[in-house]
Design a protein that fits this description.
structural molecule activity; alpha+beta; six-stranded antiparallel β-barrel; disordered N terminus; bacterial flagellum; Flag_FlgI; cell projection
Length: 372
């Protein structure tokens, strides 16, 4: 009787419109679906020194590299510190990272991120000394310098302290000036490749069709699920830059894979509209085991010989909480309908994740299942 009641409630929840509906995919601009071959940024990294800290810098005994870089900087400024013993607490060694955007020109400015690598407590209020930034080829492409905006705050007293955020990392907006440009000539290209961020044959075919309908002449051809080649010579464009400007705002409806993503820590479940479930029966319940130790001390009578003995006492019990009875899901039911029915029954998110895992393991969930 209980199983029938739960089954009726399950399908009643579906029939009452508790189904979470999914809107059909909206057309997306091509520029939001693809990466243009060669139009990319480059990562930069440098090693520098932050000064002006309020006693929160590196302990030089634990970070000898800080003393070394400080000595090198002072010597380049004409100050000889060889053999000197100095232990300042207002300096810290840091890594400086940035991204050189495509088509960046000499003299432009980019943001940088500064992160401590020693035992500094905070970079709040510090100033980064001139730091060259290198790319993967070893060449210097930018130079960074400026005041750091730390991402947190720390307060320390004699008997304790409190830290909020990450005070050992921060940013310098427009803190690096570009000194070298990348060797990429877009204007000389005769063909361009569009790389799909999520490869899919259907989406690539739709991009090809949209471009050819807009510019004509068979300018685009799909090479594989992740690449569409663009022939510049077949387009009415003065340059490759003009050609990209003509096609990047064309609208295409992307095709997505059926996918379910669950986050066990937060109990979040995200699913696509094309997820389907085959005929399957579901039953779920919770089993709770409790073991409690209540030892009892037994003492001898007054003026009697003997020793105090501790007698162990254990109370063990098993409690089975109400769960979902044997509910049958018909073939072709969407996952949104199943989740809506489980919500109607008040199933907890983590229990729902376990149910979805079991349905996937049974081969009845036809989608990619991603657990984070």
């Amino acid at each position: 009787m209980r199983v029938q009641r739960i089954l009726a409630c399950f399908w009643l929840g579906l029939n009452l419109g508790l189904i979470s509906t999914f809107a059909s995919a909206n057309p997306i601009r091509i520029k939001d679906l693809v990466e243009f071959d060669g139009v990319r940024g480059n990562d930069l990294v440098g090693y520098g020194l932050v000064v002006g800290l309020n006693g929160t810098g590196d302990g030089l005994r634990n970070a000898p590299f800080t003393e070394e870089i400080m000595s090198n900087i002072l010597e380049r400024l004409g100050i000889n510190v060889s053999g000197e013993q100095f232990r300042p607490k207002n300096v810290a060694a840091v890594f400086v990272t940035a991204e050189l955007p495509p088509f960046a020109r000499a003299g432009g400015q980019i943001d940088v991120t500064v992160s401590a690598i020693g035992d500094a407590k905070s970079l709040l209020g510090g100033t980064l000394i001139m730091t060259p930034l290198n790319a993967a080829d070893g060449q210097i492409y930018a130079v960074a310098q400026g005041t750091i905006i730390a991402g947190g705050v720390a307060a320390v007293g004699d008997a304790g302290g409190v830290v909020q955020g990450v005070p050992t990392a921060g940013t310098i907006p427009s803190g690096a000036r570009i000194e070298r440009e990348t060797d990429f000539e877009l204007a000389t290209l005769e063909t361009l490749r569009l790389a799909l961020r999520e490869p899919d044959f259907t989406t690539a075919s739709r991009i090809e069709r949209a471009i050819n309908s807009a510019v004509g002449g068979g300018a685009a051809i799909m090479l594989d699920s992740g690449t569409v080649r663009l022939n510049i010579s077949r387009m009415r464009a003065a340059s490759p830059a003009h050609a990209l400007g003509q096609i990047e705002n064309l609208l295409v409806e992307p095709e997505r894979k059926a996918r379910v993503v669950v986050d066990q820590r937060s109990g979040t479940i995200v699913m696509g509209q094309d997820v389907r479930i085959s005929r399957v029966a579901v039953s779920q319940g919770n089993l709770t085991l409790r073991i409690q130790e209540t030892p009892l001390a037994v003492q001898p009578n007054p003026f009697a010989r003997g020793e105090t003995v501790v007698v162990p006492r254990t109370n063990a019990e098993i409690e089975e909480e109400p769960g979902i009875g044997l509910a049958e899901v018909p073939s072709g039911t969407s996952l949104s309908e199943v989740v809506a029915g489980l919500n109607a029954l008040g199933v907890a998110p983590r229990d729902m994740i376990d149910i979805l895992k079991s349905i996937k393991a049974a081969g009845a969930l036809h989608a990619e299942f991603v657990v984070r």
